[in-house]
Design brief:
mainly alpha; single chain; 171 residues
């Protein structure tokens, strides 16, 4: 065997090793990108923050509903509510649902294990809420009650769709 052939085999091994390492690294990076946020230092605090964000969205929905139904409320209340919903919706993924903060992990959690088992589907549901809430914020800048009502309905559907699949019903 010539020195060139030996060098060629060594070079081939180095190239193959580098390619394998690159593939492993890429796969690990892709898996990390598709995984939910890791467990927080204080999962109970994250659940409390999540509950607070959800409560603020619920309170905002009530304000907007009164305006949409022409049962009181004001355009300023709609704008404040739309901003609160938009702000909270942007935090849902990844901030408010780190791993190990669901039912069975945290006593007060209503988050079903399906969130983490079907993380991609959960992200899509959260993205629908972000899109709908941003649309509501935009619609609230005008005073067209019908346009606001239409976007408000989209937000309600996005909330309901996520709650139906990923939240334990309250007893």
């Amino acid at each position: 065997m010539t020195r060139f052939e030996t060098g060629s085999r060594s070079l081939r091994k180095v190239v193959l090793s580098a390619m394998a390492a690159g593939l492993i690294s890429a796969a690990a990076g892709q898996a990390a990108a598709q995984s939910p946020r890791p467990v927080s230092a204080d999962p109970q605090a994250v659940v409390k923050e999540r509950e607070s964000a959800m409560k603020s969205m619920g309170d905002a929905m009530k304000k907007i509903s009164a305006y949409v139904k022409n049962e009181g409320g004001s355009i300023e209340g709609v704008r404040e509510g739309a901003a609160a919903i938009s702000q909270a919706s942007h935090k849902i993924v990844p901030s408010l649902f780190p791993a190990a903060t669901g039912i069975g992990n945290i006593e007060d959690s209503e988050a079903k294990p399906e969130i983490w088992q079907q993380w991609g589907r959960f992200e899509q549901a959260a993205d629908r809420l972000v899109t709908a809430s941003d649309g509501l914020s935009t619609a609230s800048q005008g005073e067209d009650r019908a346009a606001i009502a239409k976007q408000f309905s989209q937000v309600g559907q996005a909330c309901g769709g996520c709650h139906d699949d990923f939240r334990q019903k309250k007893s």
